[in-house]
Amino acid sequence: MGKNKRRRVTLPSSPTAAASIISDLPDNLLHNIFSFLPPKTVSQLCILSNRFYSAWNSTPSLSFHHSDASGGGVREVEEKRELFIDYISYTLARRAPSFTLDEFRIQAPALALHSSPAYHDDRVDAAIDRVLSRGGLRVLDLELGTGADLHNYLLPPGILAPDSSNNASLTSLRLSGFQLDPARPSLRLADYPHLESLTLRRTLGIESLEISCPKLKSLEVDSCTGLVTLTLDPQTSSRLESFSFVGKSRDKGPYDLKIPAACPSLTRISVSNVSITGKWAADVAARLRSLESLILTQFDPLSGDLDLSGGSENLQLLQLEISSRRPVGVRVRAPNLHTLKVGYKDEKFCREFDISGCGSLEKLELFQVCITGEWIDANLRKLGGLKFLELRGCSHLEGVRVHHRGLERLVMEGCNELKHMEIVADSLGEFRHSCSSLVPRAAAICGRGLLVATLGLPSGSFGEERLAASREFLKSFGQCRHLTLVAASAKDLIIDAILRDGKTAPMYDLRSLKTVVKDYPRRSGGFVTLVDSLLWLAPHVSVLSLRFRDKRRTLKLNYYVQRDAASGKDELLCCDRWWPIKCWRHTLRKVTLENFEPWEEADLVQFFRLSAARLEAVYADARTTIFDARAN
After folding, report:
1. Which residues contact 65 (CB under 8 A, 6 or more apart)?
2. Which residues contact 261 (CB under 8 A, 6 or more apart)?
3. Where are the domains of the chain?
4. CB–CB of 311/287 below 8 Å?
5. What are 11-23's pLDDT values in tens digits?
6. Phi and psi (nearest 5°) for 577?
7. Which of 18, 46, 247, 427 has the greatest number of CB atoms lying within 10 Å of its CB?
8. Of all helices (H) and strands (E), which one includes residue 197?
């Protein structure tokens, strides 16, 4: 077999030669290159080459973005708006009279700022009408207002007009920030024979929407003020695969969502910010046999509990965020459900929570759900395939016992009454915990040394009682591969030397420790005191990271070691044969400081010189020696 030969690539000898290579590319490749650049940048490039100019004027896709109109006062906004509209008109004017486009987009949500309640501009309307009248357009994406009061754009008459031949070729239509004609509160979309995707966001003036599009696959209706009734005819429902509806927050329904049962292709439903009955949700889950994802967020079941025990066997994702102010029970039975997310506005409104029929769960997330340690113990026995468990704001939890071989990620945050926990999970790779009051006593946390843990500490200074509880809690994390401590203030991590005296450190074997603190220790000596406390918690840490706000500082520590004859491994020296404790003050050899301020470096050098008996050197960023004991 012959050897593969490497070919030498010859680079262009001059910028002109490089430009020539690009100019020789076919139109379709140039169009792809232009699609990755802002339209204004491409327009400027066209000045440099007639070839670029010709290719730009024949590109089948045009996108206009206007993101800077919100800054400044009324006059400045108006000036930017005029320049943007002139730019659209100028770009289209350079096209040949017979031009056609495949895709046309205008992203200008601030276009209607500081304007009349139903703003419009004849030049924008003319540009849209010109593109539509040429025919052949497949994608139309227009965002010309914010959708808020006084910040919307009056929909041009050529769009959504009944019996319009301009709509015949559209496959994707997205309209955002528009106001429709108040004289037409009822809208029927029926002249889109090829439309597959329809999105209406933040529109005004539609009370009743009826859709009859035989090839529609995706429908999204988001925050349309005034909309009450949404109807899909059977022909549209037969091909629909994804349906998303977000109600206006101040309206809150009740909406009349008429989704027929004859939706053989519907796999995803997402409904948010509405008031619907529990029966509606149960009927949808039971009748749509192909449904794979059901997402109900910020919704209020008007009556009864939410019983999804008769759901689709294909259901894989279920997300419920209940905003009711009355007790609501939830019962779910879905044998193939993989992901379940359930949250309440307040834990006191959770009456019953039953997931006994969800034996295939891999991910379970609960927020402010009223559960107990006994509930967790009983259900985990039935969920052998569970990999991710998140518990947030579950204040009724006082004790947790998790014994699970397959669990990979465990999160317990805001469970402020948690007093003790026992975690034994051979596959556990990530653990997160935070609380605002109590520090629980951890009986066992086992993850085979691969655990990456993040602990949020409660606010307040250390006393005897808190130190005792914290030491017991932190002992379970000494075998972690990496530990992160999160605190609101540096004082939440500083332990007075008098309290530490005579007590053993909790995490001797920890090698990587990171702290995230919101407030920088301002008082004199506070920074050094923080480092001293952290080195007491983990006396042999190799990497100590300190992050205050957006700046991260790192200490890398190197120790004296000796080879153990029995194991053949390097082990840290003990301070004294009568006191077999491995203390950093007697074994620290070298320190590297990275990304520290000069005054911080000076304080730390002084601290290590006085505290580390066998210190050889301190380096800054691994290159500059700022202290060398051997030179003294």
Report:
1. 38, 39, 107, 108
2. 283, 287, 288
3. 553-631
4. no
5. 444 444 445 556 6
6. -70, -20
7. 247
8. strand 197-201
